[in-house]
Amino acid sequence: MTELLTAAQMRAIEQAAIANGEVTGLELMERAGRGVVEAIFAEWPELRAGTFRAVVLCGPGNNGGDGFVVARLLKEWGWGVEVFLYGDAEKLPPDARVNYERWRGMGEVGWIRAADFNRADVVVDAIFGIGLSRGFEIPAALNHEYHHFLRDGLWWTGETRPPYIVAIDITSELDADSGRRLETSQEWGGEMGAHLTVTFHAPKVGHYLDSAPAAGGRLRVVDLGIDVPELDSWDERQVRQRQIVQRVERPEWNIWGPSLTKRNPEPSAPAHKFSHGHALVLSGPPGHGGAGRLAARGALRIGAGLVTVGCPPEAVAENAARLDAVMLRGVADGEVLARVLEDRRINALCLGPGLGMGEREAGLVAAALGLAECPPPPTPPHKGEGGRDDLPTRGTDASGGLPLPLVGRGQGRGARAVVLDADALTMLSRSPELFDALHKTCVLTPHAGEFARLFPDIAAKLEAPAVRGPAYSKVDATREAAARAGCVVLFKGPDTVIAAPDGRCAINSAHYDRAAPWLATAGSGDVLAGFIAGLLARGFAPFDAACTAAWLHVECARSFGPGLIAEDLPEELPKVFRALGV
Ligand SMILES: NC(=O)C1=CN([C@@H]2O[C@H](COP(=O)(O)OP(=O)(O)OC[C@H]3O[C@@H](n4cnc5c(N)ncnc54)[C@H](O)[C@@H]3O)[C@@H](O)[C@H]2O)[C@@H](O)CC1
Ligand SMILES: Nc1ncnc2c1ncn2[C@@H]1O[C@H](COP(=O)(O)OP(=O)(O)O)[C@@H](O)[C@H]1O
Ligand SMILES: [K+]
Q: What was the pLDDT predicted at 269?
C-alpha cells in the first residue's frame, strides 16, 4: 500500500532531509519545478516541440517559488511565459525569493488581477500548496476564467483552444489534509481546479478526499530524491502504522496470513469447504430478501467455503426459489440465532441488507453481538409436525469438518466476526445497548447518511464549513468513529475510508485512474457487506477484510464497466481474480 502524507508529515520529511545535509531547500525547489515541467511534457507530449505560451500564477510562499522555477525552465525551453504574483515579493520566503530574482532576470512579474489567459496554452497554478491555512479570495476574473477552462472550453471566447491548467502540489483553494475547499466570504461561487496536479515525493491524504480528486484532474507524483530512513524497530513501525494513512492497493500475498488463494490452512490436513469458513447472512421479511441474497452471493464468490442465508420462516419459500449454492435456513428470532450460533463453524455474520428494523431484527443484532443468551435446545418436533425454524432447509452443512477458531479469539463466545450494514446500523444508532456491545471483530459499513445517524456529533464536525487548515477530514471522522465504536468503520463513498480503533487508516479511492462512478448503483453496498463477510469467514482480520473487499469491489466495477448493476459485481470476481493471478 502507498503511504499518503499530511502536510505536516511532508514538511517533517523535507526538513529532516535538509537538516541531515542530504539536500538544500533551494535544490528541492529546483527538483520540484523541473519535475512539474517534465510532468507537463509527459502528459501532453505535443507540447515538447514548438513554441507555446504559459501563464504562471505564483503565490506568497514556496509553492510560488516552484512556480518561478517552472517559469524559468519553460522560458529556457523557448516558450513565451508570463508570471503574475499574488502577494508581496518583499515577503517571499528565502528560496522562493531567490527564484523570484532569477526569474526577474528573464521577465516581468505582473499583479495577479492583471493575468490574461487569452492565447495561453498552459496555466500553472502555483498560488498555494500544502501551506494554505485559510481561504483566499480568488480574483474574480481568474475565478471566472477557470470556470470556463474546466468545462472543456464551454463559453471560451479566447482565440485558440482553452489552456491546460496545471496545479503545483494541489489546487490552490484546497486543504492538503482534507481535500476540502477552505471557505472565504467571497460571494461568487466559482471554483478553481486543474487538468493535471503534480505533487512531490508522495501523494497527500487530501488528494484522495472530498473535492480534491474532482478538482485536480489527473495526479502525478514527482520523486524529489529524498531518502526516508527505514524504521528498524518493531515499535517504531507500529507507531508509524497508526499515524500514516495508506492508499488501498492490489492485495499483496502474505504467505503466513490468510490469502485470497484457497489453500490449505493446515498443511497436515486436507482442505475442505469448512477450511474456508462459513458466513451467515441474516435477511429480512418476504419481499425484502434481495439485498441479503446479493450479500450472500458476494460472500460466496469471494471465497467463503459455505454461505447460508438466515431468513424469517415465512420468507423461506421466496428465498428457496432464488438460491442454489447459497444455503438457506429459517431464523425466526434472536433466540433461534443464538442457538444456530452454537455451531462454531459459522465464523462470520452479515446483518443489515434488507433486514428490517423490528423486534426480530433487533434481537438478531443482539444475538450476533453476543448479547442474547443461548436458550436450552428446543424440544424435538412431534412426528408429523412442520420443520423447526432453525433447521437447514436447503443444501447441507454436514461436513465432518473441524470447527474453525473464531476470528476474535479470546473475546468470549459471542465475539464472532460481524459485518453490520444498512438497517443494522440504524438499529445501532437507536440502541446504546447494542452500540456498546460492538467489539473489535465487528465491521461497520455506513454511507454518509448512516454515518450521520450513528455518529451525529462527528458528522456535524465534518459538515461544518472548512475555514482553517488543516480542516477536519473524512479520515479524522472515520478514525474518531472507529475509536468510539471499538471496531473497524468503513465509511463509504468514492473516497471510502477504513479505520481501525487503534488508528490504522486507509483510503480506497475510486478516483483518478480507478474512477468507477457506475458503482453507485442500488445494492452495490449490499454486495460490499457480503464481500467483507466472506473474507472474514476466510480468516482475514477485520481491517484487512474491509480494505481488501473495498478494493475488489471497485476492481469488479472497473472490470465490468458502465451498465453495471449490483448482481454483476459478484459475477465479475472470477475475472478479477484471474487477472490478479489468484
Ligand atoms: N515541503 C516540501 O516537501 C516541498 C515543498 N515545496 C513547495 O512548497 C510548498 C509549501 O510552501 P509553503 O509552506 O511556503 O506554503 P504555501 O506556498 O502553500 O503557502 C504560503 C504561505 O502563505 C500563507 N497563507 C496560507 N493561507 C493563506 C491565505 N489564504 N492568504 C494569504 N496567505 C496565506 C501561509 O503562511 C503559508 O505558509 C509546497 O506545496 C510545494 O509546492 C517544494 O518546493 C519542494 C519540497
Ligand atoms: N461516485 C462513486 N464512485 C465509486 N463508488 C461509489 C461512488 N459513490 C458510491 N460508491 C460506492 O457504492 C457503494 C454504495 O453503497 P450504498 O450507499 O450502501 O448503496 P446501497 O444501499 O444501494 O447498496 C459503496 O460501496 C460506495 O463506496
Ligand atoms: K497550487
A: 59
Q: For residue 29, give Cα distances in angstroms to 66, 76, 129.
A: 6, 17, 13
Asked if residue 36 belongs to a domain, the reply is yes
Tens-digit pLDDT profile for residues 134-158: 998 887 777 777 777 766 555 556 6
Whether the CB of 132 sits within 6 Å of ligand 1: yes
Angstrom CA distances, 22 to 31, 173, 379, stand at 14, 32, 77
Per residue in 238-293, pLDDT (tens digit) is 888 888 999 999 987 665 667 787 666 566 655 676 778 999 999 999 999 999 99
Residue 576 has which C-alpha cell? Answer: 478479477
Cα–Cα distance measured from residue 490 to residue 291, given in angstroms and rounded to the nearest whole number:
19
The answer to whether residues 315 and 289 touch, using CB atoms and an 8 Å cutoff, is: yes
pLDDT at residue 240, as a whole number: 84
Could you tell me the pTM of the whole model? 0.92
Q: How many domains does the chain have?
A: 2
Q: Are residues 347 and 448 in the same domain?
A: yes
- Kindly report the backbone phi and psi dihedral angles of residue 192, in degrees, each rounded to the nearest multiple of 5, phi listed first: -85, 160
Grid cell at residue 363: 434481537
Residue nearest to atom 31 of ligand 1 (CA): 136
DSSP 472-491: P-HHHHHHHHHHHHTSEEEE
Determine whether the shortest distance from the Cβ of 516 to ligand 2 is under 6 A: yes
pLDDT band at 159 (very low <50, low <70, confident <90, very high): low
Distance 197 CA to ligand 3 centre (A): 8
- Using the Cα atoms of residue 112, residue 113, residue 119 and residue 123 in order, give the sign of their dihedral: positive
- Among 396, 398, 394, 399, residue whose Cα is nearest residue 328: 394
pLDDT band at 333 (very low <50, low <70, confident <90, very high): very high
Residues with CB under 5 A from ligand 3 (ion): 125, 167-168, 172
Q: Is residue 467 classed as helix, strand or coil in its secondary structure?
A: coil
Q: Give me ligand 1 centre to Cα 15, in Å.
A: 14
Q: What is the DSSP letter of 379?
A: P
Interface ipTM: 0.96
CA distance 473 to 174: 12
Residue 63 assigned ligand-binding role: yes
Determine, yes or no, domain membership for 525: yes
d(CA 137, CA 187): 10
The domain containing residue 303 runs over which residues?
273-375+388-467+516-580
Assign 3-class secondary structure to 526-545: HHHHHHHHHHHHCCCCHHHH
Ligand 1 atom closest to Cα of residue 176: 39
pLDDT of residue 396: 35
168 Cβ closer than 6 Å to some ligand 1 atom: yes
Q: Determine contact, residues 472/210, Cβ cutoff 8 Å.
A: no
Q: Of 223, 243, 263, which marks where a domain is finished?
A: 243
